[in-house]
Structure formats: structure tokens, C-alpha cells
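Quick entry between incubations.
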Amino acid sequence: MTTPPTRQRKITLSRQNSQHIAFALITLAALAVIIPIFFIVGYIVYEGASAISWEFLTEFPYNGMKSGGLLPAIVGTLWLTLGTAIIAVPIGIGAAIYLSEYAKDNALTRAIRIAIINLAGIPSVVFGLFGMGLFVIFLNFGTSILAGSLTLGIMTLPVIISTAEEALRAVPQSFRLVSVSLGGTRWQTIRRVVLPQALPGIITGVILGLERAAGETAPILFTVAAFFLPRLPTSIFDQTMALPYHLFVISTQVPGMPIHIQYGTALVLLVFVLSMNLLATLIRRHYRQQRFW
Amino acid sequence: MTDKLEDKQKPSISWLEFFIERAIQASGISAIVLVVLIFLFLIQEGIPAFFEVPLSSLFAARWYPIEDYFGLLPLIMGSLIVTLGAAIVSLPLGLATAIFIAEIAPAWVRDILKPFVEVLAGIPSVVIGFIGMLVFAPMMRVALNIPTGLTAFTGILLLAWMALPTIVSVAEDVLDAVPVTYRDAGLALGMTRWQVIWRIVLPDGRSGVLMALMLGVGRTIGETMTVMMVTGNAARIPTGIGDLFMPVRTMTATIAAEMGEVAQGSAHYHVLFAVGLTLFVITFIVNIAAASVVFRQVKRAERMLS
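Done. Structure below.
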């Protein structure tokens, strides 16, 4: 009479224990993923903060880049981000509209989807190779902002297409039906009803795509990046310095580089990129709360 | 959009609308054009390598381009060891983090954690390489008592960590998609929450988890700047487990490090494009495989509904 209850309790206990152990391990693993993020960001801020000054952001580097500031690299990255946006945003949103509003479920649409998945998976350095072969050499743009922006733009396309399509698809079908029933054409419906509703989601996707482009090094290695250039670019056919490449150069190619300048450069790049990330998160959160459907 | 509406619209379309709709169509097709263009370009510049360099040399063990040794084996092995290693490390970590976020953590912790994983996705690879080189590699050197911290193992750990945002977010979606009724059934039978996760949720989502892993691997194999900065870049064929703690050189790092210095049209130039072509083909296969998992899943869901 006494044995069955004890046995039962034992089983319950071990099941509970295995849950405790499993949850503890999982929590540990999650911490192992999350804590290094804090560590890396915190460490760069801690080590790099001493380098940050007005001069660091607004002066040209001199003395073999060991003194002075980051101005040409910051300006270059701004140019490249803008160029990427000009290339990738219209085509990306156009493709998203096509997939969400026009495409039928046929072989062509499936081919487009497979192409987008693959475009997203191509290694960034292969984009660099392609950009160099096509834009720099074949089309003879030279290593230039134009060639770099085109390369980065193509790389950013799949991110923008997939996030924008998701945003467009989230707009309820009833919205479209109302517009069409009032006599709106298909484009009028898209232009005045669907796009405005999907805009916050599209903007979020665009920012996330540009954020990635701004931090990329491999695609600009052979298409635009200059090792050291003591002037600002004046046209889209100029080379330019850029923050990610500059960080790579001063941390691996220049011996005797003061350590606080290296961390300062990493900090500026990180702030630039993560503030875009923050902006995207805020926009998404803001509009998700306002949305009434 | 529904086909019923389409036919009635056609007569009233103005020329402006006609133009805009053609532009939208063209953008839609652009992705196909670009992928084909990239592929053709890599073929055009990469295939000559197979004629300029004897095949026996291409599949030899020595990569030393200055003296015309173009053995690709060490590069392929280097990429393979780093990618496989990163996959082995990141799958359990990524899955555990996804389970933690989707199943265990309370809602407010989840709301904090998800943006942080996105922050990780946003850190540029050159910054992770920089920290890896300056902080992590010296730590590894001291901890493991090896001559240099710039090793395959260091690269594996950093790449695994970088692949996590992809694995976590895809795996989390997969876990979220497992129907609540399945869980309720398990709980009603007296299973603990952990048993429900382990015996019901994970088996149901296994193909999605596989897809998450493949997408993560796709990102890892193409990673360039971090591996170039932390793996030491010595082109040698790994022979044993001890080689994990020696420098390696990956395909991506080789292209990035050498392309800037080669003469256009030289054998070395064509070989580097051939390496790029190889990478393109590998990621193409991995991504098609991952995508087919998704398509299959959708089909299964459709079957269940009908």
C-alpha cells in the first residue's frame, strides 16, 4: 500500500527536475548569446569615448591617419548610404508592389521568389567581385561612388523587397475592395490606399536594409573604397573613404595606430549603424500601436 | 489581388498608369535579371581559370599565387571547417535562445530580448572582426595556451555568434507557428512544460528549425571581414582536430585579401573569380534547399486545411 505513492512522487519529482535542469540550461544558453552583445557594445563605448571630440568628427586625418579625424570617411559613408537608397528603394518597393498586388501564382512569380532568396544569400564579397567586374571595369565607371552605390544597392534589394512585401500584404484586402468599388483603378488603389497604410512597415524595412549597407565592407573593397584620401568626393565618379573600410584599414594595415583612434572609429560606425536600427524599431513600435486594423 | 477585379479595370487605365505598371513589372523581374547577370559574369570571368591553370594544380594542396600555385583545396577546407564548426556551435545556442524567447521568458523579457537580438544582427562584421582581433583572440591565446589566438576556432565561435540572429528569429517563428491546441493536448495529459516543448513543439517544427540552420549556414559561409580578421589566413589543409587551433584561410577571405592586388585578366584574377563562382554555387544550393523546406511546409499546411 505504501509503495505506489512514493514511486509516483519520485516520478513527478524527476519530471519536475528535468524541467528545471532543461530550463536552466536554456536560460544559460540565451544569456551566452545576449551578454556578449552588451559586452561588445559597452566595451567599444568605454574604450572609444575618449577619442570622440568635435575635431574627431569634423577634421581630416593627417600624420599617416594617426592624428586628426574621420570627416572623409563619415561623408563617404553618408554618400554611399544615399546612393544605395537611390538605387535600391524605388526598385525594391516596385518589386514588392509587383509581388503583393500584381503577381499571379505562376512559374514566373516562383522564379522571382527563388531569385530573391538567392540574391539575399549571395556572399557580400561576391557582390564585390561582381560590382568590380561589371561597374568598375566593364562599364568603366572606375572605382567610384557610382560603382559602390550600385553594388551596395543590388545587395540591399532583397531586404527591402521582402520587408516591403510583408508590409503591403498586411494591409487588409477589404481596403482594396472599397477603393475599387468606388471606381478607383488598380494603381489609384495602390497609390492612395495600400501604400499609405503600408508606409511605416516599408520605411522600417528600408532603414534596416540601408543599415546593413552602411556597415558593409566587402562589397566596397574593390568598387569604391579609398585607403586614404585627404579631400571630400566632388562627384559620383570619385573614390571615397568609408567608415567600415577605414576601420578595417587602421586596425589591420597601419602599424602603430593609436588604440583609442581605432576604438573611436569603431564607436562612430557602431553609433551610426545602431541609431538607424533604433529608428527603425521606434517607427515600427509607434505605428503598430496606432494601427486600427 | 483577385483576378475578378482585373478585367473591369483595363479600359480606364491612362497612359501614365500604363507606364507605372510596366515599371513595377520591370522591378519585379529585376531580381531574376540580377541573379542571372551575376551568375553569367562570374562564369565569364571565372571559367577561364580552368583553362589557364592545369586542373592538377587547382586541386592541389598549395595556395601560393605569387609563384603560380593555385591549389583550391586548403581554401575549400578552410571554409568548410569554419562553416561546419559554426553550424555545430550555433544550432544548440540559437535553438535554446529561440525556445527561451518563445516558450519560457515572460512577455516583458521577450519584448526586451527581441530588439537585442536584432542589435546583434545590426553590428557590422568589421566591428565584430575588430573586437575579435583585439580582445577575443588574445583571450583565446591565453586561455588555450596556443601561439596565436587567430585560429579557426576563434573564427568558428565568432561566426556562430553572428549566425544567431538568423537562426533565432527563424526558429522563433517556427515555434510560434506550432498550434496552441497541440500544447494544450500535451498539458492536459499531464506533461510538464518542458516535455511539451521537447516531445511536441520541437518535433513538429523540426523542418523549420532545419531551414533556420541552413539560412544561418548560408550567412556563415559568405562571411568575409570577420573571418579575414580573426582566422589568421594561413592557407593550409587541416589534418586533425588540433588544426582547429591553427590559422586557416577561407575562400571569402582569400578573395577579399587578394583581389585588390591582382592584374586584371591574369590567371590569379580568373582563379579568384572561380572561387567566387564556387561560393555562388554553394550558397545557391543551400538557399534552394532551405526554400524547398519552406515550400514543402506550406504545401503540408494546405493539405491539412483542405
